[in-house]
Amino acid sequence: MTFRGKVAFITGGGSGMGRLAARRLARDGAKVAAADINEAGLAETAQDEAGIRSFVLDVADSKAVAETVARVESELGPIDRVLNAAAIMPTGLLLDQDPRLIQRVMDINYIGTANVCQTVLPRMLERRQGDLVNFASVAGWMPSLHFGAYNASKFAVVAYTEVLYHENRGQGVRFACVCPPPVATPLLDQAKSKPKILENLPPISPERVLDAIERHLEKGKLMVFPDRNASLSVAMRRFLPSLLWWGIHRIEKV
């Protein structure tokens, strides 16, 4: 564990990666503010964990984010690590999806991430310390059928985090943009359209992703690809996009 601070702020703390990260940090002695719109999920995350405090929050609401961050720092102390894990992943062919759902995907996955960064990062920069960890995805590099809305939101997270890092590097804050392949968390249950590509990509464990984050933060590497498949997928997208799309169409039969 490379976390050297005392207070962590984790969005999406009601399940999945956010829950595991919150519990891991709390068991290592950190004070954890777990935020999520899912109050019942937060209660499960904090159960039997004295180091976790729950904050009900819609990250798409910038005013609510600012108020929650101020409350966390007032009650727990300055935030030393942010982990933006809040996300939704409803799948489907784009023209089959309600435009309001596509907007919601972008609002949570990208705008929510930006809202938290814009609120917390200036405080970290002023103190010249902190870890800013944003969850993107291999889907933020490699588009695929059924994942168009999710792809767009995660492409945005990758671009935003990369620029944010370069605008603020060398000022004491460590950055990580996490780009995992499918991970064995409840997020996969939202793929209701049953994309066949998921059958060809066995999910990795969330523990593996968290371990990779710590290694990359320690080495000062921005982009976190937790396994070889993630790195190969990004390389394929960059150098052999036509072959990639041929494979996707063959798998999905669209």
Provide the descriptors you would attach to this structure in a database record.
alpha/beta, Rossmann fold, 8 helices, 13% strand, seven-stranded parallel beta sheet
Q: Which helices and strands occur, and which strands form pairs?
A:
Layout: E1 7-11, H1 16-27, E2 31-36, H2 39-46, E3 52-56, H3 62-75, E4 81-84, H4 99-127, E5 130-135, H5 148-168, E6 173-178, H6 206-219, E7 223-224, H7 228-239, H8 241-252
Parallel strand pairs: 1-2, 1-4, 2-3, 4-5, 5-6, 6-7
Helix pairs in contact: 3-4, 4-5, 7-8
Task: Describe the protein's architecture and organization.
The protein contains 8 helices and 7 strands, in the order E-H-E-H-E-H-E-H-E-H-E-H-E-H-H. The longest helix is centred in the middle third of the chain and has 29 residues, at 99-127. By secondary structure, the chain is an alpha/beta fold. Helix 3 (62-75) packs parallel to helix 4 (99-127), helix 4 (99-127) packs parallel to helix 5 and helix 7 (228-239) packs across helix 8 (241-252).
- In terms of DSSP E residues, the strand content is 5-15%
| Individual helix count | 8
Radius of gyration: 18 Å
Number of domains: 1
User: Which of globular, elongated, flat, extended, rod-shaped describes the shape?
Assistant: globular
The H-and-E topology, N to C, reads as EHEHEHEHEHEHEHH
Summarize the structure.
With 254 residues, the protein is α/β, with parallel strands linked by helices.
